[in-house]
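The instructor's notes for this session suggest beginning with a concrete chain rather than abstract definitions. Hand out the sequence below and ask the class to guess, before any prediction is shown, which regions might be ordered.
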Amino acid sequence: MWDELIGQEFSVKALKQASLDAKESINNKVLPGYSQSWLITGPPGSGRSTAARLFAASLQCEENGCGKCVSCISIKKSTHPDVHVITPLGNSYGVDDTRDLVREASMMPSLGQWNIIILEDADRLTSEAGNALIKAIEEPARFTMWILCAPSSKDVLITIKSRCRIVSLRTPPAEEIAQLLIKRDKIDKATAYFAAHASLGHVGRAKLLATDEKVRERRTQVLQVPFELKDLPSCFEAAEKIVEAATEDADQETEVLEEKELDSLMKAFGEGAEGVTKKKVERLASSAKKELEEGQKKRYKRITRDRLDLTLQELSAFYRDVLVMQTGAEIELFHTEMKSSIQKIANSTSINSTIKRMDTIETTRRMLPSEAAPLLVLEAMTVALARA
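After discussion, reveal the predicted structure:
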């Protein structure tokens, strides 16, 4: 079961031991390092959510995570009644949502030994939401286990992280990502190694790059941006291309999900049932449908900005490869298939110029969560890249 979490041997060992300690605590035997509040950190794609779910399965499973029992399978399918996975829909997670979460955490488990709350993207908690969560995390109910996820401990409110035991994940090595794609997804060796390097250590992204030609095409278009920045019109066109690529990624990710959510909602209000008209279902589901659509809009906005951030990481990695060539460092390139093109830019620009461009991209990434229009932010970035 733990094989799904690649390149994280130390963290896996710590979580396995924590699961054993938790089982001992049920018998009123509290061991050193035992905690009911956890913070799993790691860069995007390192497997934070996967680690949280595997830890939850290990806690609920009588065999410490066999991967085959009813508990393990239901947690993998997100159907276990005592494991609640919370993903903030928008760019922040507010105090009202947090208070509802605290109430849910106080409930007794119905099947398992623990009532487990997995809060993804805990870095999106507002200050007020964090304050509402402090007491529940500091003194959890006897049967409650909190598992928070965030990119780093610095991204989480200090009042929250100081009350959690932290497990840090690292960026998985490209070799291990490639082997996972070959064994798990039956990807051919050449494609697997290309995707592993191009993903920048993001396991989910690697699978998409290996299996979806459209994703590869959008990546190729984005990586042409450094060669197209010649004048102001080309800078504006490049910014629009980046936004379009991120929007298409977000559309692809959310389209099927939104259809399933709407279908499930309508069935819950009687669609397809004998004697229930479509008009009646629409009337009964009106309010719930509106609430669902509002939540979907928030999620779509967040996913689009996340995809923009991932695109900017790819651009930053491109200029990192340029810098590697300029300095002669003996480090493997992320974009090995573009080596000759990268060499041309490395020969025609200075090290100082490359560093400025990387700084410009990082500054733009920090601006994305703001309410500024993404296109305007990216236009400013492409103009700055052209002038560097």
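Then share the key points. The first strand starts at residue 37 and ends at 41. The domain at 2-168 is CATH 3.40.50.300 (Rossmann fold).
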